[in-house]
Predict the structure.
Amino acid sequence: MLSKNIEQLLQDQVKKEASSSQTYLAMACWADTKGFEGAADFLYAHSDEEREHMLKLIKFLNERGSQATVAALDAPKKDFNSLMEVFKSILEHEIVVTESINNIITNCLAGNDHLTNNFMQWYMNEQMEEEQLARSIIDKLEMIGSDTGSLYLFDKELAGLASAEH
Ligand code: OFO
């Protein structure tokens, strides 16, 4: 059985992962309609990944004697000025999610919940990869600057990253 505290933290995390999925989906729609087809592919794929993160938590809660809650979500931001703005907000978003996962692990350790701690380690590794990926994309966009030819090629590269992740 999960403690009430851990159960609530995991329920909140389900909502955060669902919200991440919607956030990436809205970004994908923006990219798709602004000519960034590669970025759109990457963001659609990432939205699916976040849904997987949510499902994994839902199943864990259900298997541990709780019942996962599917909560209502606020609509995500849908307009951006540039691809750089999209990836900067992705990085900010993922840093907040990492803090949230870290907080769950801190609570697991304080409550001697080693099973949930073990389960959450997967999320910690995933966060490290996501933050690192967002940082490397931002670095590349910085190098590209206002060179539209390079931006066009980089957009194609992002489509490749989407398929490499899956
Ligand atoms: Fe679920 O990894 Fe991003 O938010």
Remarks:
- DSSP finds five helices and no strands in the chain.
- The radius of gyration is 17 Å.
